[in-house]
Specification:
- It is found in: Membrane.
- The structure is a single chain.
- The protein is of the alpha+beta class and 268 residues long.
- The chain is built from eight helices and nine strands.
- The strands form three sheets. The chain has a five-stranded mixed β-sheet. Strands 1-2 form a two-stranded antiparallel sheet. A two-stranded antiparallel sheet has the order 3-5.
- It binds adenosine-5'-diphosphate.
Length: 268
């Protein structure tokens, strides 16, 4: 589709010609469509826990406390779970939006790779323990040049996915290796269910799940990997996954290793 603007050329009060500017609006229409889709998915994602929360509160307000006291604790648990989900969703939506609009300024620091990885693993310790997953860290001695909070957020998303999609008793490896002159590659490897090849290119897009039930059943928001990609790209790095169904997945991303080489910012 093409849009045009016509403008008359006036010379001494007389129209001497017309300038017509044509503009291809395919890209703009694509972006508008993506925005509409995003808003409709977000509204739907917000409505589901709200409806459930409303139902639980309605039952309690309607006298469930007197009539079925044994059920009320369960209703509170459901309500709290839905509130937590709403908070996670809203935080993820805000992060995703801020990262995309360039409003999130990175605070770079130099940090030993091992310290960063160990901190990320420590933050996931209790959920790993609950799922009976062992987290291991391997890091070559080197310093990274990163926004530590944002890279911890990325590692947190990747490690929590690795835990979610692994069977009890499995282990997850978080490793940092030197790559080239100025880069490091960080890997989060699991021995979980893996990702079918036709889904690999989709999972870094917002609200894309391999299985439609993944999001709610696993407590995710569907924005985790989309946020990871924006953070890594803003660091000037790349993110990708290698996976085999039934064997497991390895998520990789690159970051700068050398303080002298400043990464170039870009947004997804
Ligand atoms: P979610 O909040 O649903 O986890 P993500 O963006 O983090 O959203 O992940 C998108 C989807 O990619 C997940 O719902 C899941 O289907 C798939 N996925 C992500 N990580 C893994 C993994 N380690 N193993 C298998 N599937 C994964």
């Amino acid at each position: 589709p093409v849009e045009y603007v016509a403008c008359p050329l006036v010379d001494n009060g007389r129209v001497s010609g017309i300038v017509i500017a044509f503009q291809d609006i395919t890209e703009r229409q694509r972006l508008d469509r993506m925005k509409d889709e995003f808003i409709s998915t977000v509204s739907h994602e917000l409505r589901t826990p709200l409806t459930s929360l409303r139902a639980a509160l309605g039952l309690i307000a309607g006298g469930a406390l007197q009539r079925r006291p044994e059920k009320v604790q369960q209703m509170f648990d459901v309500a709290i779970g839905n509130c937590d989900r709403l908070v996670r969703l809203v935080n993820d939506i805000l992060d995703f939006e801020r990262l995309g609009s360039g409003k999130m300024q990175l605070q770079y620091v130099q940090m030993p790779a091992r310290d960063l990885l160990q901190r990320a693993v420590d933050l996931q310790h209790s959920s790993a323990q609950k799922a009976n997953i062992t987290l291991r860290v391997e890091a070559e001695p080197m310093d990274l040049w990163v926004d530590a909070d944002r890279i911890l957020q990325t590692l947190g998303n990747l490690i929590s996915n690795a835990i979610k999609f692994s069977p009890a008793g499995a282990d997850v490896l978080v490793r940092a290796s030197v790559r080239g002159k100025a880069e490091a590659v960080i890997e989060v490897r699991d021995h979980g269910r893996g990702i079918p090849p036709e889904k690999i290119s989709l999972i870094f897009e917002r609200f894309q799940q391999v299985d439609a039930s993944d999001s709610r059943a696993m407590g995710g928001t569907g924005l985790g990997l989309a946020i990871c990609r924006r953070i890594v790209r803003q660091h000037g790095g790349q993110i990708w996954v290698e996976s085999e169904v039934g064997k497991g997945s390895s998520f990789f991303f690159t970051v700068a290793r050398n303080v002298a080489v400043l990464p170039t910012a870009s947004t997804a």
